[in-house]
């Protein structure tokens, strides 16, 4: 069994066609078929069922596919990491993150990276939830992830700062002249909810937080993206929650921003399956110095150089 055979199998499975797979792989169809048969002989059974029009996975093929995909991705990741570590021209660093971090923090960081490391390209992979982000990193989709650290992560985790979760209301809202508000004061207000809302102890974060404050939030509308929720709140649809760097950076100052008393904050970290070296380590250091993650004293940045301390239940930390 070889890596090339697994790459061929994965491509055939994705395309559901020997013809299209052969074209993508730049090999002849007989050569591709020969390699797949050799792979099936190696694993001890048929992985693909040949049909008059295309192919489909056998039960053995369905069981084998995710492992083959991971092997192919890991090999590609190893090649990227080696080239990036050497600063090789054409090397790539693949970075995975959640949408809010992608739009609120990473643009300025990526711009600085391009100025300081022009030989190493960046590829961004965005995900809607922390759970999806962790799953894709575990599968080897990217070299590192930026986001709230998952609980009990087996690989390296390096804190790079924190994000404050704020409340968004329109400028003509009665609360707009204030800087902070207690959550209990919003018990009768409608809310704009986002599908990317984190889950805390089995509940959506806002349900969990409002429940602790003694009420159930009234949902006015649900959106897919954080930036959309902020726009809806700015228009007066309802109160929205969002990371402060999204509101003040990507979305703009066209709404009133309130902090919660006591404040909502959660840690952000870089995490990976393997040790952060070369370009991955350089990117982590650059991110740790990013201003949106460190609104306070420069001394707050020192924890970014130490191993992360997870909250045991993975909940959003508050201070």
Describe the structure concisely for a colleague.
By secondary structure, the chain is α/β, with parallel strands linked by helices. It has helices at 3-15, 18-25, 29-43, 59-85, 99-104, 106-116, 130-138, 205-213, 226-234, 244-251, 278-288; strands at 48-50, 55-57, 91-98, 120-127, 144-147, 157-169, 180-181, 190-194, 199-200, 203-204, 218-223, 239-243, 256-260, 264-271.
Order of helices and strands: HHHEEHEHHEHEEEEEEHEHEHEEH
Residue share in β-strands:
15-25%
Low-confidence stretches: 296-319
Roughly how much helix do the residues carry, as a percent range?
Answer: 25-40%
Please characterize this protein's 3D structure.
- With 319 residues, this protein is an alpha/beta fold.
- The strands form three sheets. Strands 3, 4, 5, 6, 7, 8, 11, 12, 13 and 14 form a ten-stranded mixed sheet that branches. It has a two-stranded antiparallel ribbon with strand order 1-2. It has a two-stranded antiparallel sheet with strand order 9-10.
- β1 and β2 form a beta hairpin.
- α1 crosses α4.
- It is elongated.
- The protein starts with a helix and ends in a 31-residue tail after the last helix.
Keywords:
319 residues, alpha/beta, 10-stranded mixed β-sheet, elongated, disordered C terminus
Protein topology:
Elements: H1 3-15, H2 18-25, H3 29-43, E1 48-50, E2 55-57, H4 59-85, E3 91-98, H5 99-104, H6 106-116, E4 120-127, H7 130-138, E5 144-147, E6 157-169, E7 180-181, E8 190-194, E9 199-200, E10 203-204, H8 205-213, E11 218-223, H9 226-234, E12 239-243, H10 244-251, E13 256-260, E14 264-271, H11 278-288
Parallel strand pairs: 3-4, 3-5, 7-13, 8-11, 8-12
Antiparallel strand pairs: 1-2, 5-14, 6-12, 6-13, 6-14, 9-10
Helix pairs in contact: 1-2, 1-3, 1-4, 9-10
